[in-house]
């Protein structure tokens, strides 16, 4: 049962935040952020499995290629250190925004959120703090979500991202109290983190097509489809191939991309992907890409490669995925705009602390085309979950989105799956 202090803190935050800029609980999700501060864990445990490198890559790629052009983006660390705004930084400044030599012994939640509050002076509902944190320090028992809410009194939303299975489940309380979103990432990778950033409540002109982790020393096939909506002079196909190491410039990366609908002599191959030294990723971009099924093969010696494919386009399909959990039931809602005709199926992947559970549901229309819902009861009762939604057409993935927790309530359920 929640303690009296915890309930008091959450009640105070709810009253305090509902008065901000005239936004209530019901319409908070519709407000797009234009100032974003990443509050990141730089404690010693982030050295494990190159987690710090993956987080830095994901933040830098999202900032440089996917963030809204008019937004302001900053960084604060979960320790006593001054934060800074980085959106307009160039070259070495962006790459070194989270130096490897400045790890602290423990993460300080209150310190990071407090510094973000200083950066977001005169904060309102259009301000967002993206919290990335692993485990809470044993030597700082007072550094809780409840203490942070009472002490900082945030006037901004907090989107909490719990990293690894060791992460503090109480981080969700920050998101719930501030009408933000949340995500649980049990196995952080560059592609998984970038997927989560792509679900942030900001203005978007891109769609996530697919994401995949390619094991080292193997030829990894990645297949995806673009429909006719992609054939637009303003559309740009973006492929990010990011080895998970600190010394990307020394890696020999092999890749080959082609549209299988074309004749062999007209195959489109990525001979001009470039290593972006700011992000540590190989980036391929093609304007006005052709519709059809695309195949990408990626491989790197002695290194795992994260692959994420985006389409920059105002008109292409956008997939948004939301999740709530109540009494052991997981509710998933997805919206595709504009709707996709002749969609084969809609897959929902559920990952919990005990492993992955895959649920597959046939797409059904409800209320309007492009609106799908699913209701699932996992075989375990683990409270934290990570859900991914995938739209499949002609047997090939068309769209993908990482679901994030939301305050949306569900009045109707189209699909019921109980194991």
Shape: globular
Cα Rg: 21 Å
Low-confidence stretches: 12-26, 360-367, 407-419
- Total separate domains: 3
In sequence order, what are the helices and strands, one letter per element?
HEHEEHHEHEHEHEEEEEEEEEEEEEEEEE
Largest sheet: 6 strands, mixed
The CATH architecture category of the largest domain equals 3-Layer(aba) Sandwich
The CATH class of the largest domain: Alpha Beta
CATH-derived topology of the largest domain: Rossmann fold
Specify the helix fraction band.
10-25%
Strand content: 35-45%
N-C termini distance: 29 Å
Give the strand order of the largest sheet, numbering strands 1, 2, ... along the chain.
3-2-1-4-5-6
Number of strands: 23
Mean pLDDT: 76
Fourth-tier CATH superfamily name of the largest domain = von Willebrand factor, type A domain
Protein name: VWFA domain-containing protein
InterPro entries: vWFA_dom_sf
Keywords: Signal
Organism: Cloeon dipterum
